[in-house]
Specification:
This protein is about 45% helix and about 10% strand. The protein is built from 15 helices and ten strands. Strands 3, 4, 5, 6, 7, 8, 9 and 10 form an eight-stranded mixed sheet that branches.
Amino acid sequence: MLFSNCPDNFLVYKRPSLLYIILFNIFIIITIPVASASQTHDTFKSLSQNFYTYNFLNSLVKVPLDNSLQESPSRNDVVRVLSLDGGGIRSIMQTYFLEQVEKAVGKPISEIFHLIAGTSAGGIVSAGLTVPQNPQDDPIDWQPKFTAADLTNLFKEQAGKIFCKKSSSLWGFWGPRYDSKSLESLMEENFHDTTFDQTLTPTLILAHDLQGNKAKFFKSWNQKEIFYTKDVVLATSAAPTYFEPRKVVPVNVDSVVKNYFLSDGGTCANNPTACALVEVKKLYPHVQKYEILSLGTGTYTDPLYYEKMKNAGFVGWGMNMVNISIDGPSNLVHQEMQTLYPNSYFRWNPSIDKDNAAMDNISPHNISYLLQAADDMISNAQHSFNELINRLNHPRAELIPIYQTNSLQNIIKSAA
């Protein structure tokens, strides 16, 4: 049978045999002529609006005619998750690391993982790795617009456009420190009018909903709200005091009915690994095994001793509050993942000096320092890096997320 029920009653896709492909096409040929013109139009309109389902249905008629067809997903299949912390210019260490992964595996990142999640600058990287080169083409022909190396070069060469200072802000005391228009122009140049449902693999990006004081999850598979990708990355990277918050409106919803006032996702979850794991469990409920690659943006030791802090007030604590409120929860997520998945969770977070830790230090010297720190991290843990590459060299399991099976069900029902 084409679909089978899991113990949790979710549909699991089975790769069809040649017989099922023939029967499926006969079903379409018989059904469409007897359907009314409006029903036929609506059926294919809904099909064309769902990029993932369209890609999936195309694959039905492009299955190789041999005996190598795979069986349905088994409980031995593994879901791979990539999680990217926020960190401003320090995210260049993530792109450098992923550059080495792409070289070693010989595939783009979007073909290695089942879900990619990011916050702040990590959200920009996530979107960059999954945006297609020509989104107007047939989704089955999509290719990545950027490699990890391209994103490394973008951070190196366009850092001045990302962090373009405003002379009127008094270093962030009386307004955002940097010109949001400059960053907006750069994101427009790279993402154009691509929408966030047009991703090469399921992608999750976080922002902070200031009106509701809660996390806003941008999910590429959410067809109820579709956003421009440039708006998503501008929202997730709108760090307080650095950039102005972003007003975001779904392109498929009346702006009077729904709009969002958003800032940097790092104030909710700078390390989005746990958020990504929750979503991937919902996307692939029939899979029980995970491989999680979590990339930080550098860690440094700056202990707060009792004697120094016991008499501290607003100023003393305020100078350290950003690191406490962001790094503390990020480290907690890391500890939890280590406990839950000791053999399949991989956290790479370079050690850096405090003097090089500013997320907006875009001097050539600092950028070179960050790249060297990432390279040293790999060199000093070459055995662990090789172990990671050995895992990633195994072909990604051909798993169909739950929303695709549901969409296919609805399309077949409407055609009938």
